[in-house]
Amino acid sequence: MNSFSYSRPDDVNAAVGEISEQTQAKFIAGGTNLLDLMKENVEHPQHLVDINHLPLGFIDELPEGGLRLGALVTNADTAYHELVQKNYPLLSMAILAGASPQLRNMATNGGNLFQRTRCYYFYDTATACNKREPGSGCGALTGYNRIHAILGTASSGNTPQCIATHPSDMCVALRALDAVVRVSGPNGDRTIPIADFHRLPGDEPERDNTIEPGELVTAIDLPAEHFNTHYTYLKLRDRASYAFALVSVAVALRLDEGGQIAEARIALGGVAHKPWRNPAAEALLTGKAADTTLFRQVAEQLLDGAQGYGNNTFKIELAKRAIVRALDMAYAGSTQAGDAYKQEDIL
Amino acid sequence: MSNYIGKPLSRVDGVAKVTGKAKYAAEFDAPDLTYGYVVSSTITKGRITHIETSEALSLPGVLSVITHENRPKIAWLDMSYKDQDAPPGSPFRPLRDNKISYSGQPIALVVAETFELARYAASLIRVDYREAPHETNLDTNLHRARKPKSGLASLLKPPPPKPRGNFDEVYAASPAKVEGRYSHSPEHHNPMEMFASTVVYEKDGKLTIYDKTQGAQNSQLYVTQAFNMSFSDVRVISPFVGGAFGSGLRPQYQLFLAVMAARELKRSVRVTLTRQQMFTFGHRPATIQNIALGADSNGKINAIYHDAVGETSQFEDYTEIVPTWSPMIYPAENVTLDYKIVPLDVFTPLDMRAPGGVTGVPAIETAIDEMAYELGIDPLELRLINYSDRNMAEDKPFSSKELRECFRQGAERFGWAKRNPKPGSMRDGHNLIGWGMSTGMWEANQMPARAEAVLTVNGKLRVTSATADIGTGTYTIMTQIAADTLGMPMEDVLFKLGDSDMPLAPIEGGSWTAATVGSAVKVVCEELGRKLFKLAQKIPGSPLAKAKWDDVEFVDKHIRLKQNPAAAVSLQQAVDQNGGAAVWQKSTSLPAMMKQKNYSRAAHSAVFVEVMVDEDLGTIRVTRAVSAIAGGKILNPKTARSQIIGGMVWGISKALEEESVMDHTIGRFMNHSLAEYHVPVNADIHDLDVIFVEEHDDIVNPLGVKGLGEIGIVGMPAAIANAVFHATGKRIRELPITLDKIL
Amino acid sequence: MSTITVTVNGKSYTKEVEGRTLLVHFLRDTLGLTGTHVGCDTSSCGACTIHLDGRAVKSCSMLAAQADGSILTTIEGLAPGGELHPLQVAFNDEHGLQCGFCTPGMIMTAADLLSQNPNPTEREIREGLEGNICRCTGYHNIVRAIQLAAERTAGVPA
């Protein structure tokens, strides 16, 4: 690692001030991703602002019934928080599907939003990567792309600039829940709907999100709608745990009294540069009862325009099947974390 | 007497390991220790045209950057770089010249006062290359396959036997035929401990080296040859090894670089590889096999064709025994086998847990399952129809083979009799359930070895041999053997290993350590016992004065008459008779070649597996597995069971998860981290059961042991692949079976 | 360079560290506590797991400077006073170790698991240890060791 200066402010304004004054400065919270990238020489900040001592370790109920998650609450404390488990079990489930206990004990809610892709080429400085080094090319496009994106990869040219995916599980649930990110910056505070927080690579794959220089995430707001009865987070990966998603599906359904679907949210992970939703596909479910054919139609529409690049082409069909399964599970009120992985012996 | 052998004892090194006191190569300290960091090539083939080190060298605390341009003079002949496990060819020499032969090749070593400084300085080194086209894809280079060169290392890995009978004719006329192409991806050993060498530069220029290795003496030999040093100036120590699985059979390049830097700087140096660099040396080679089987309508297999093409490097001919397993298991009269290699721009492959065995056996065992379906015969029944007590590759009887009993006990424990052969006939919700089985086999070898035993003046026994314990339990079983041979409590026995100054032992691999070093420990303790017996006889009025060696036994710290246990002399009394000196013995154990040569010696297993496959999502879990092992005498069921279970988990890994994925466009392994190179995690593992079948063998070696390091893995992949077929009706011949292959 | 004060295994240390020094290297190289192993360097294997203020964390993914003011426990300090912790006894008894390299991290993670959940099911153990890789691979006995330690300490306050 390069040497860097290090500071540890204890209020938000000081932190924002410091980051704005320094060149090539970065915030560090849990550090679980940033330090790895520094070790691999992918990131090389000159100054680290350690924000762990800012007063952002709260989980507060909002007057309108929502919940505000402080940016510095760890993923573990969030997932196991009584109100999160009761009101937003989808979020809890998604968080626990990611990383490992030790990492969840360190990683923070704010930091999780800033996880960078797990693209092999992004991590390997011997290879071409437009995200790491704009203009150098995309090794994954012609190389090994099993874990790469199938949606939203378009750029202004003929070939995509970047086919990396966003690796977070938590953010997929946040997307389904329509969370709102609160930030403080040199120009004051603002809010960013989660849908607009992460971005597609387009012609600027080096930018993962829409945050402006000097801005600090202070909290994530969860709206009042809980979706705590008909939901699931289904994560498919190459081993039973501790692997990034090939495809993940967060489903949140609200049923009316007759058992018809009043509202549906479906967010996909592992398929794009950001958690993916398609309101038109979700709308197909409104006013309908569970029906596998309908679920498949929804899946087809969600994957509309999907493109494979060789090793990852299977994800198109896998995602469709995962959507159907997740809708089935959510509708049935089955909260198993993907029954493909249930542990009980059956014989 | 057997107080300890055969008992499920806890490890003698267990407490050191649970308290963090067991020290591995990167954990030994030295005064003024410096840290080396390796710079790796970013291209796959070509030349370095310029290497710029000035920016790195300008950092305060950076001591040296060694490259091919400024390296000190080293040995000139290829011979000097040949370690005990070197295949025929010209061994890789780090920093030899500007030539790049594979991606990730070490091209410089940065030495600095701290690890992070060395790592940072390494990132500042700028390299210009002239690239040349590379070939890394086995599949597209099969036309370049050729016979391997033979050499010393090929003694243990002979080419397949010549054809017997007439395969073409008999196959053509066979009423039942199957044929298929089987392949698997390269794999890297990835032990948890990354390769490291701590080279302590002593005042007189002698080196004490803490190295991660499966053979301290192999590392010592390599260093002395490559740097033209004398044996007395190089001592290699390796008391604990954090897993190896074959990766430590050859000295790795960090050893060479650390020694070079220590000699150059006249300071102690530690070089630790990164996990990414763990993908830049030996690996299990990608291999493509073709098999054709012809059987009569009763299921008797009369014709076997089995060929294999494996990858190797451009500089050494690494080989494995692959097709030969077919006639070793199945006694067909008409057999044609072939084995070739393709040199590619990769590092030389390296033996990895059950090398060749877990390549060839899963292929033939999958083909046998296909034949069972072709014939409509139960897969276990088909194996019994073709059971043989002779190894038809060598046309010799087995010294022992309790495989039939493995089949019986394994099938019973698993409940195989209840199996409905129809694919897709069992399910639970979305999960299709499949049952599959396989035979496993691994050769039981014994090598020459030496050991030393000393009974100290206070009656404690110390036994040493320069072998390694890579986690298998060598410390424990050797302590058991020594204690039982001399009738001593294990608390009074200390077994030490992993030091090049100790008596000669071969590299620790091939499942031969229990047989090889165990025999040496037994022999040296027996011969020490003879000395003690003679001393005991000299004691005035000794009750053993007139006894013969055959009349006595060693029990409870005494030498006593078998017929009259009261006539006894304590070991302490015997030592006391030695004029105040410890009693010392060094002995050699040699395999009884005359006795062994007429027999084929091998461990066998029968493996039964249940899988659950999600019919929509393609996810596969191994929910149950039973492995029945015929592995000769089991010295310690506790360590033995762990060895087998570990092998079974490796089998699950090989069948379902593990592969090093090469981007052939750039010729580089891309999933070079433990996050993306998938090995099983705890949640992948369910019910694993091990049965040790009673097997007596006094030909294989004096202890009757067969070694258990490899046999656990060999049968698993085919059992899983066959179970996946039974669940889904899909025959996957390409490992690993990831979910996309099921969709 | 900055000065940090940490309590490690009950003993307070005040040391100068470079900003870029990882906590794991501080423990191993500066304090000589080499029982905390490095198996991947990139937060993927769990061998470097220690307790930071009572919770299991990966010491390769944290700067030493970030630990300033914290209370740390490593495998060497899990059982104060030279005794063995029930998990250490159980790992030895149940043969939950082979090469031993992953063992300290496994035990430290298991200790955190048992402090949150004194009677975990097999599934909870397998999921709770998802961040610790054993290559040898002794998951089977590791699970049994943790179950045994849980049984033996049932009713005993942590």
Automatic annotation (TrEMBL), chain A:
It comes from Arsenicibacter rosenii. This is FAD-binding molybdopterin dehydrogenase. InterPro entries: CO_DH_flav_C, CO_DH_flav_C_dom_sf, Diverse_Substr_Oxidored, FAD-bd_PCMH, FAD-bd_PCMH-like_sf, FAD-bd_PCMH_sub1, FAD-bd_PCMH_sub2, Mopterin_DH_FAD-bd. SMART domains: CO_deh_flav_C (SM01092). One of its GO terms (molecular function) is oxidoreductase activity. Residues 1-227 form the FAD-binding PCMH-type domain. Keywords: FAD, Flavoprotein.
TrEMBL record, chain B:
GO terms for molecular function: iron ion binding; oxidoreductase activity. Pfam families: Ald_Xan_dh_C (PF01315), MoCoBD_1 (PF02738), MoCoBD_2 (PF20256). It comes from the Bacteria. Residues 144-166 are annotated as: Disordered. Residues 19-133 form the Aldehyde oxidase/xanthine dehydrogenase a/b hammerhead domain. InterPro entries: Ald_Oxase/Xan_DH_a/b, Ald_Oxase/Xan_DH_a/b_sf, Ald_Oxase/xanthine_DH-like, AldOxase/xan_DH_MoCoBD1, AldOxase/xan_DH_MoCoBD2, AldOxase/xan_DH_Mopterin-bd_sf. This is Aldehyde oxidase. It comes from Arsenicibacter rosenii. The lineage of its organism: Bacteria, Pseudomonadati, Bacteroidota, Cytophagia, Cytophagales.
UniProtKB/TrEMBL annotation, chain C:
The keyword Ubl conjugation does not apply. GO terms for molecular function: 2 iron, 2 sulfur cluster binding; metal ion binding; oxidoreductase activity. SUPFAM superfamilies: 2Fe-2S ferredoxin-like, CO dehydrogenase ISP C-domain like. It comes from Arsenicibacter rosenii. Keywords: 2Fe-2S, Iron, Iron-sulfur, Metal-binding, Oxidoreductase. The keyword Cytoplasm does not apply. This is Carbon monoxide dehydrogenase. Residues 2-78 form the 2Fe-2S ferredoxin-type domain. Signal peptide: none annotated.
